[in-house]
Hints:
Order of helices and strands: EHEEHEEHEEHEEEE
Mean pLDDT: 91
CATH class of the largest domain: Alpha Beta
Number of domains: 2
Structural class: alpha+beta
Number of helices: 4
Helix content: 25-40%
CATH topology of the largest domain: Alpha-Beta Plaits
Amino acid sequence: MKHTISVLVENHAGVLSRISGLFSRRGFNIDSLAVGVTEDPTISRITIVVDGNDHTVEQVEKQLNKLIDVLKVRTIPSDELLKRELVLIKIEATPNERREIMDIVQILGARIIDLTVTTLTIEVTEKTENIERLLALLSEYSVKEIARTGVIALQKGSDTIKGNGKQIL
């Protein structure tokens, strides 16, 4: 089962290395990892998606909480999860294929961000499941390149994660 873990950390060099090293040493595989600064430039949010049972995730949380630069760790329950991923897709397309691709892109809420004589570049920000659906529909065309950000997530509602006495929205 997939679990999404939100980790607030001090924004220092080497923090991501220590966190990924913890996963490596324990033999835990990371499905997705995204890092970005929060509204407080001294704090970063790391969103980690792992596949495992509840016991494994509990162990990961305990190990993360032991790291010095970690301020707060929270596994967000799937029913309380707001998550998105950004994907850029470059497709080689003939003039006849362009209209079909543009229809798929429009129907699924993506957009064309670059157009050349031979290629289309598509941007989509969506739930992973919807991105997979788009990629499946586009697989019959000549996909040249894909870049994915990894999942970012927040908890639904007014609850926030607090780190180091600060409320992080």
